[in-house]
Write a structure and sequence with these properties.
Length: 329
Amino acid sequence: MDVLENLLRTTVIIATINATIRSAVPLILGAISGILSERSSIVNIGIEGMMLFGAFAGYMTNVALSADHIVNGDTILAITDVRLGLSVAAGVLVGGLAGLFHAVLCVQYKVDHIISGTVVNILGLGITGYFYDSQAQTAGKIPPLISNPWHSDDPLYNLGRIVFDKSLITYLTFFVVITTTFALFRTVWGLRTRAIGENPRAADTLGINVYRLQYFNLFMSGAMAGLGGAYLSLDDVGIFERNMVAGRGFIALAVVIFGNWHPVGAMLGALLFGFLSALQSQLQFAGINAPHQIVSLVPYVVTVVVLAGFVGRSRPPAHVGQSYEVEGT
């Protein structure tokens, strides 16, 4: 009996860790999106809409490329790697274009950043909801990249259940955190990005093309959000539903503040929120019968606490939220 209890306890712990990672991946990508944007002095509350665009574009591309496979069972684009690779690329591209649209409004036309981000969110919700097709079918979602190489009798088997059996996007997400951290603090691009977030006038004086860098960074910001959306519709859930992002874009903004606009801090915050989200399903497996409505509130309550407790302590980029006017234009 003790052996069985220990096995169940181990299974619940591993399931909780895996659920935490699944829940954290879109939040990490959304947070990276916010960091790239706000380090460039542009507030981005449009992450929610960008993720929706990415989720919808990725899923509908998968639907289109799956059509011949479902009917005939034989087409070059039905090859899993090609089909899903193109679907993810479509989600990333459309998310990037949504970020570029936000940049045009904020940089070119000096629209208030909050209003511009709200426009992106409304467009994302409206367009994806209008073209949503509940009858759409796909040939499958993204499979795990590497299966657990250890057998159940191996002492490393449980570790393998955590490290392996994950999709490429999951591994790519943590790689993005590493590369973004290095790029922001160890490259010329990162120095210039941080410069225009703190003092774009000084950066402009030194010959940095502020507008061009903002456009590029907002495209990359949208691309990261689009990748997060594609993860939801192509990997985590496997289908598209109206408003399936369900507030993750706004939680990602709280994660940005929690992490003090640093990729590693944001990743840790996303893992915390992911763990709280994982509790919704894993508490039942542990035999704790808490009302699911209360448990579902926990991530959002923590979001409010984070916003209340960390906003005053975190220091955002000095120029964030302010439009910059290049001299002579």
